[in-house]
Amino acid sequence: MGKMWAGRTSGDTAKIADEFNSSIGIDSRMFKEDITGSIAHAEMLSFCNIISVKDKESIVNGLQEILADIESGKLKIDMNAEDIHMFVETVLTEKIGDTGKKLHTARSRNDQVALDLRMYLKNKNIEIQNNIKNLVNVITVLAEENIDAVMPGYTHLQRAQPILFSHQILSYAFMLLRDLERLKECYKRTDVSPIGACALAGTTYNTDRKFEAELLGFNSVSLNSIDSVSDRDFCVEILSDISLIMVHLSRFCEELILWSSSEFNFIKISDAYTTGSSIMPQKKNPDMAELVRGKTGRAFGNLITMLTILKGLPLAYNKDLQEDKETVFDSVDTVNKCLNIFASMLKDITVNKESMLNASKTGFINATDLADYLVKKGIPFRTAYKLCGNIIAYCIKNNTVLEDLPLKTYKEFSDKFEEDVFKAIDLKTCVENRISFGGTSKQSVIKQIEYIKKII
Q1: Are residues 61 and 95 in the same domain?
Q2: Which of 29, 106, 192, 238 has the fewest Cβ atoms nearer than 10 Å?
């Protein structure tokens, strides 16, 4: 395939240089966006009387045939082409003759690739949003099904206070809702058409950029032609958003991995999402959760790669920007796979409520409630805190727990203790008394679920 840019130079580049320069292996996935953008460009050129209606129709029909042939498999993308833009233009010219050469009027590959990438990422942004909504729905259903399950809440990975399992997993739903908000904001800044900026300075033709942008479903057009072809902020932004999504998935995976271990035994991950050991027949490994956790590093790496590409680039377009697509394509693919596998895995887990409750009965996680009990009897919190610490020390020394301590012993520490102390430190009471907004009581969790359903 000849070089479209041959002229100033012979175009006779070394084979090793062609291979190094080629991006067709990466950007070929944008064939639909490239052809759709080219159809809109031809329509604009005709609308502005830059090409004839006849030429426009010939170009549009040819492009539509190329698109249909690629999608059906009749036409294979030539991996020897420099990029998807040159491949499509070459095939079009072969199909309709010299009229095909008019398509690139008032356009550069610089604004063309920026357009293709924005169109592609707009669609992928929506796909990620939908996958997040699906996962949030799975979490919400799991929370509803286990609304009363009591488990230990942790700080520093030490048992801290009793909470509802539903409350714990809903915290991840709220993380994902923030991810959803960020993606929506990112979409707005991606939804800006750069086409018509040409190489960097615009064009001498009397084009209508807004007309072309509207045909392609863009909300607005870029205001500075130099910025139009050199801007990759939208790539950095979606890579950053994806990195945060992966952080949230990774944290959730870490909990599932811990909870499914024999030491916790809070949940059981379905056999469909685990693997065995090649040497230890008893093993059941949470490999899917571990892979999601591991793939988080890829998302981080892609973000750093993109930032590094941009950090020293002079304006306007530089070939360095060819490296943008591999990073965003990989992160988009990775996050969508991870969201899908995670939702499927979570939908199929078994919650061991009894084991969670038993774990809650050790570790004195109702100690704060014991202190609050004394505060409500008129003792200052810090005094109550120290008093309860002494009681816990006594329990540890005598190998007992707060619930089993006789009232007589309680009264040795303070005459404020009455029979109602046992109700106050009952685990279910501890949970239900967390009535503050956003807390772990059942009614609070129900309100959280209702809020999430309205958002989704």
Answers
A1: yes
A2: 29
Beta bridge partners of 162: 152
- Same-domain status, 332 and 427: no
DSSP output for 252-295: HHHHHHHHTSTTT--EE--GGG-B--SS-TT--B-HHHHHHHHH
Q: Residue 91: which domain range?
A: 15-105
Domain of 168, CATH number, reads 1.20.200.10
What are the backbone dihedrals phi and psi of residue 73, each rounded to the nearest 5 degrees, phi first? Answer: 90, 0
Does residue 316 have a pLDDT over 70?
Answer: yes
Cβ(150)–Cβ(360) below 8 Å: yes
Residues 195, 218: Cα–Cα separation, whole Å: 11
> Is 250 or 283 the better-scoring residue by pLDDT?
250
Are 195 and 280 found together in one domain?
yes
Is 156 part of the annotated catalytic residue set? yes
pTM of the shown model: 0.93
Verify that 290 and 303 share a domain, yes or no: yes
Hey, is 163 helix, strand or coil? strand
Q: Which of 52, 220, 261, 277 is catalytic?
A: 277
The yes-or-no answer on residue 104 being catalytic is: no
Residue with tokens 């009397």: 206
Q: C-alpha distances in angstroms, 153 versus 98, 156, 356, 365, 447?
A: 71, 10, 10, 8, 20
Of 18, 65, 23, 63, which is closest to residue 40 (Cα–Cα)? 63
Q: Is residue 129 domain-shared with residue 218, that is, in the same domain?
A: yes
The catalytic residue among 10, 72, 156, 262 is 156
Q: State how many domains the chain has.
A: 3
132 & 256 share domain:
yes
Q: What's the rounded mean pLDDT across residues 189-205?
A: 98
